[in-house]
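Hi C.,

You asked whether I'd gotten around to modeling the 616-residue construct. I have! Everything is below, sequence then structure, no commentary in between.
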Amino acid sequence: MTDTKILVVEDESIVAKDIQTRLKNLGYTVCGVTSTGADAVKKAVDLRPDLVIMDIMLKDEMDGITASEKIRKLCNIPVIYITAYGDENTLNRAKITEPFGYILKPFEERELHINIEIALYKHKIEKKLKSNEEWLSTTLNSIGDSIITTDKSKQITFMNPAAEELTGWKKEDAIGKNIFEILDIFSEKNYSKIDDPVTRVINEGIGINLIEDIFMINKKEQEIFITCSASPLKDNENSLTGVVLIFHDITEKKQAKELFQLIVESTSTSIGEDFFKLLVKQLATTLKVRCSFICEYFDPGDKKARVISSWIMDHYGEQVEYEITNTPCEKLLGNEFVYYPSDLKTLFPNDRMLEEWCGESYLGIPIFDSDNKILGFMGVIHDKPMKENETYKSIMRFLAVRASAELQRKKVEDELIKSKEKYKELANSLPQTIFEMDKDSNLYFVNEYGHQSFGYTTEDFAQGLSILNMLIPEDQEKAKENIKMALNGENLGFSEYTAIRKDNTLFPVLIYSKIINDDKNITIGLRGIVIDISELRKTEDALRESEERYTLTVQGTNDGFWDWNIKTNEMYFSSRWKTMIGFEENEIGATLEEWFKRVHPDDITNLKSKFFSYLE
């Protein structure tokens, strides 16, 4: 069974009934039957059948041909005519309505079936073809590139809206003209006309591309830089029927490239403040605007910014801080671009900088860091209305990326300076000598305590001093070896040296150092600390002298002395003690048990009890 719905239009009731019966026998659904043209049109609109079987000669005012024409226009439903009249006049009238079949009465059921199936298939194919044509037409008309087609005689057969804009010709005026009546293409190298690409494609049957250094002059006598491709159009039998040309306008791209190159060349070797100055000057000059500027935020939440650099007409502006609330720059916090073509002072009447810079139009872009956090913004202001220009935007996008890198570098540099200042402040507060030196042992930083400790002034260090100059000659070779090992990453701990002051006085020191690596992890020197151990040596000498006196005292008395170190369990027995009990110097061990062995058995228990009771 088929789901095909058919509307029958026949004014003879017996014939209409017969057609219904035959259609049902063939498996079709009869969705309606009517005897008038007007009702046929209404039912076609309401029921939306797949096919209409229409008698040409109807008895009311609207005949079948007129009804079919209305149905085709309103519903695009295929119609098969049935008629008892086969005269030439009737046939010619019927042809105008583009019927999908024409059956003469009387007819066989098989004839009816064949006509219906052919009509349905033909309508399906036509709908698909029409859909494809509409899709193709919509695509060609909406595509950004300019498309022109010609026949084999180079006569224009199609032109899309982009081609109309490019050439300056209206489609209706261009159709039928020779392609080169409306199009002149030249070489940029010598301004001569290029070879005819259409003729080449027709003669050679292959596509060609013209992508370098060509431009066209359109109807408005504008020079437009383009790329062009030309390809053959062929029918189902692979016979050439014409040529399709596709043009891409690269004028803005070419201008942007030249402007990019100009700006890049002028700023590529600069960094820091010099870069920002060159950027704003070149930006204003290139875009031909009154002012350009670049600003950084202190804190976007506070809506305060600082003008890093600006160019106004013919001079650099001041580095000022200002509140961005109720200014065009405030809008940049949530947008990629902010553009005001005119009436800037009317829109922002309280912006004092617009007043100073005579601002009428504005184009600005935010500057983000690598984490997509806003760093600042840059823009241009003109004293006349400014047309929206994609080239300007492209240039500013590029420069915003370059400015971002420089702002981030500046930020890191500022943080590094602050870090160094904090480090120096900390180093200068320490009561020991802190130093930094390069790989050749030349000192480039010594804290204030080091200046005082060694007796050298800032000017002395500025003139150049090696850390080896601050050690006695006898220790310098040892220091060289230790420096070499430290630079190779060995951890030497503290090393002792004898240091020499500017006034040639000597003092003992301990020196500890670690390697310094740059941002590429390459060793560039050593950082370390010098500890003056003069007081430690004095204490050690005093202790040594005290111990020597103690030893002489013990050795000079007739009494025997012993001493027990509880922590190490070691005993000390004086020589006199050993002699008193009849032993030589090395015959008694240095333990507590050796002492207990020399106590009479009757006394040992009482001695241990009192001994350990005392310890408790």
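If it helps when you're writing up: The first strand starts at residue 5 and ends at 9.

Thanks,
B.
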